Each structure stands twice: as structure tokens, then as C-alpha cells.
Model the fold of this input.
Amino acid sequence: MTTPLLTVKGLKRHFPTAGPLFGPKPTVKAVDGVDLVVGERETLGLVGESGCGKSTLGRLIARLDDPTAGEILFEGKDIAGLDDSSLLPVRQSIQMIFQNPFASLNPRMTVGAILEEPLIIHQKGDRAKRRRRVAELLDQVGLRREHVDRYPHEFSGGQRQRIGIARALALEPKLIVCDEPVSALDVSIQAQIINLLQRLQRELGISYLFISHDLSVVEHISDRVAVMYLGRIVEEAEATEIYRRPLHPYTEALLSAHPEPDPSAVSHEIILEGGVPSPVNPPAGCHFTTRCPYVREMCSQTTPQLLEHEPDHRARCLRLDELDGNRITERFRPISQ
Amino acid sequence: MTSTTTLPQETEDDLPPRRSQSRIVFARLLSKPAAVFGMVIVVMLVACALVPDLIAPHDPYAQSLIRRLKPPSFLDQGVEGYWLGTDHLGRDTLSRIVHGARTTLLVSLFAVVVSAVAGIWAGLAAGFFGGRTDAVILRLIDMQLAFPVVLLVIAIVAVVGPSLTNLIILMGLSAWPRFARIVRGSVLSVRGLEYIEAARSIGAGKLRIMLRHILPNILSAIIVYASFELARMILLEATLSFLGLGVQPPTPTWGGMINDGKNYLSISWAVSLFPGIAIALIILAFNLLGDELRDALDPQLSHD
Done:
């Protein structure tokens, strides 16, 4: 097998918090040992509740933040410890699309200036060449060339997100980290942006790390999906597989809470009790013990590993083998299925 | 600005016709009486500073022992043509006020520029880098603010002697900490926004982020503050001239004129009064303008 585009190994990001004047300060374990792989022309969906560390993970991979430990192998080269100047060539290949299109564009720069800036920084061609490239980018994302001298405040949310996408495309990246790129948009606009991202992937062969809390959006766009809970990946599989047969109890609960567009469908929502525990002091063993409906004593004594339970379907749970056939959602499943 | 080309597939509606932001701000200012008043006074000041010879009715240096300490022309014993009276050397007060505008504006404007440049750099560095840099700059600010300005100027002028350049530099240095604080605060409010992250993700260096992404977005706060600071500098310049530390006679300065008149207050109050009114009017004008400018630049307030 060839080297995948992106391989993340044991990635950690711990934020120091205010603590006692002396002695060890407590840390927020936002990302706590993540392994994942993104292949070429592939979309990996990353889902999880807010506060689970998925955005931090995205920022680490885009190297907007420094990891505490672990490796980020991009095309086989570890970029986790690189400083600003050595990161410059890597930044061409890894770009980012941000959540809030109203905050991610500099209000004092025209669209043309925003799109030209990456080309200037990376010294791509002369002025005329850069101008042509900007026009090409506007075409690619479905904006008009005449809009090049407009300011961001003159555009709607969807149009601004297109500008953000165009900026990410400017350097012809191989991987784009999309951090909730549609969650700030109207539903009708969301579909347009998702279609745009998919078309760009087909035409340009880009890979996406698609971070979202919206399960249907992720199902639609992803080839594979990883589910994150309290700084760890708890399950990872092909998108169709994970939605059809979630293995980890957390994924099961997450998907059961996801509304079906079929009015006749009977809801078997698993109600999780309590909130997400503090990442400063996560529960021992499996992080999900405090809310898991299948919890046993051993769960808080041993930390489960992300293991392949079925071909290309990994989950982080100790009780998977016994749980088969005894799940809450399965009890409600119609017999005919 | 609409064109008739066919829309590409995913394009949304065309944009509204554009209006330049500066024009909007200017229109808002013109709708406020206080702002208009301020602008009129400032325009008068600038006109006096630029072409005093065209405006002043007399030579500001022409002395006459016969005409000394005359009251304004509209009062008893006033001399025709000397509208605001004359000083102890018989010089025309109005002409001296008009000519004094140049010194006042020159010194305070340059002092504000000096303090703004120093303060903006210090504030940008403190807000952007944070940590130790921030702590050091904050302590410097505290030290500078703890030192009385007038005392500092007296001490330094005593050593280097009074001159226009020295005055400008000293006044500028006395004001940089306030600028630095304003800028630092504004930087902190902008630094965490997504477009700064976006600039980093395309590989923009620290200097580029500070100058191209942060500075333009805090400029309106700086401009508003500068107009208040200008008023402050005019007062400081007048104070220093009054104390004899500023621009030296016979060059007319407003502070110097008040000083000239203070020995004759019991005989002729007019000599000190009118330059005092000029100072008060200009300071009022810049403060009003600053207030209205802050409102006009604030997109949060509704302007109907």
C-alpha cells in the first residue's frame, strides 16, 4: 500500500489551565491520543458533540496550533514539530475552510485582495498572472468576476463561504480541513456549498477532513466517518457502514438521536444522561462510562483501544462482543428486517 | 452595476449597488449639528494655519505704543479695525490669534503623529505577542503615565533648550502610553477572530498579519482616539507656551498670549480672554468631532 496523504498518530493537545501557584497545573485534554488516516481524494467525516475536541484536532492538522505530543505525517513527513518558516511549503498543501463566513474574511480587504494574498505570500507568478488566477478561482466557486473589487460585507453568508473556499483553493492544496463549513448557513445554502465542495473534489482531486456535528451532512459527503468523544476517536468506518451498524454505544446513541425524514419511523432514541464530563478530569478507563447505557465495572478500570472489530470498522469499546444482539435499538427493530 | 451575462450555475442573486463606506460615514456626520459645528471650527483653524496672511487684518508683529492695551473695537475706547483689541505692545490680538493657529496645529498634529506611531507599534506588539512582551510594555506604560508630563518637559527643556522639534517629540512621548493602551485593547478584540487564523493558514507572517489584517481593522478606533488626543495636545501646547517652555516669543502662540496678558488683567482683560476662548473652542470642536465620529463609525448604532 502506498503512503496515505495524511496519517495522524497518537496526537495530543493539552491546554494548561489556571491552577495552584505551585505544583502541577491541571490541563484540558482537548485532543487525547488521536489516530486517523485520510487517503487521497477521500473525505473523512469527523463528528462529535461540541467540546469533544474535533475543532482542535482540525486546527492541529492545519497546524494553526502546536500539538503537545504525537505525529502528523503528511505525505510521509512529520509536520507536527515544524516551526513557522518550515511550515510555509506545507501550508500550500493543507488549507482550511472556517465555520463562520462572517468572521473568516478580513472586512477591510476586497475579494480580489483576499484571494491574491496567498499567491503573494507563496510568490506565485507576477501581478497579471495572479489576477488571472483570482478570476479563475471566482469561476470555480461560482462567483462573478466583477465581484473582485467588492468587500466581504456586500456578500451574503453563502457567497462569503464561497470566497473562503476560493481562498483555500488558491494554492492548489491536497487536503482541506473543513471546520463546520456549513453549520452557520441556511439549509438551502448548505446544500449548495456541499455540492460545490463535492464538485471541487471531483474536478481537483482534493481530500477533505470534514468536521461537523450535523450527522446527515456528514453522511452525505463522507467516504469514511470517525466519531469523536472527549478527545478520542471512539469509532471509525465507511460512512454507509457506520450509519447502518454503529458499534460503539456512543455512536449508537448519537445516531438514534438523529431525526429520520420518514414520519412513520418509530423513534428509539437513546437518551444519554448527564452532560459531557470535563476534559480537565475525564473519567478513568473508557471516557464514556459516565453516560453509557451498557456500562460495567471493568469499563472504568481498563482503557479500551481502537480495535478493528469487523473489516475496516474500528471501535473503542470493551464489551462489543457481548453487546451484539443485546442492544437497546435492536430490541425495537421490526422482526421483518 | 448589473450586467446581463448569464448566471453560472451556483451563483446567487447579484449584489446590491455599492456605497462607499467613507461616504456613508461622512453623510452621517453631516446630519449631526454638533459634528457640523466641530467641522466648521476645525476648517477655520486649518484655514488660519495655512494662509494666516490672507485672514489676519494686521501684521501680528506690528507694535504701537499709542494703541497698547486697547479693548475690542465694539467697546468704548476700542480702536476701529482692531476687533479684539491690542496687547501690551499694541499688537492686534485677532491677527496674533490667527497667526498662532499655525504653531498650535503644527505642534499638536505632529505630537499626535509621534505618539500615535510609537503607541501603535507598542500596542500592536503588546496585544499580538502577549506574554512577556505584553508585560514589559505594560510596565513601561505605567512608568510613563506615573510621571507628570509638565515636570518631565520642564526637566528636559532645561537640558536641551526649547525648540519646535524638541517640543513635538516631548509631547509625543508623553502621550504614547495612552495610544498603546487603546491599540492593545483593540488588538486583543481582533486577534482571536477567524480571519486572523485564516491569514495564518495561508502562511502570512507575523508582520503581515499585524499590518494588513489587524491594523486596518482597528484603525477607526485609533482615528477616533486621535481626535480626542489632538484636543489634549492643543491644551498641553498652550500650557507649555504659557509657562514659557514652548515656542519662544515673538512667535505668537495662544498660551504665550495668555501669559502676556496675565500681568495686565486688572487693566485689560481682553488680552488674555480671547486666546483663551480660541483654545476652548478648538478643544470643544475636536471633542465633539471625536464623539460624533465614534458614533458614525460604529456599525452597531442605527443611523436613521
